[in-house]
User: What shape does this take?
Amino acid sequence: MGAPFYAQYPDTCEPTSPLFDDVLLQFSLIMKHARDPNIGLLCHGWDESRKQRWANKTAAQSPHFWS
Assistant: This one.
């Protein structure tokens, strides 16, 4: 939910900052790990450690999707 602000901030406030590289990394990780390949929707969350109760143990994704 904060990604649009996070992407705008370095462009507006710190144009020489490496923050935009992190913005791109965040988007790339979400598309790689939180997108359900069968239906194309983004899961509400992804837990790399697979330790969260809500994360399935195979894909580490939340069972809920963004609407």
User: Anything to note?
Assistant: The helical segments are 3-12, 19-33. The mean pLDDT is 87. The CA atoms of residues 56 and 62 lie 7 Å apart.
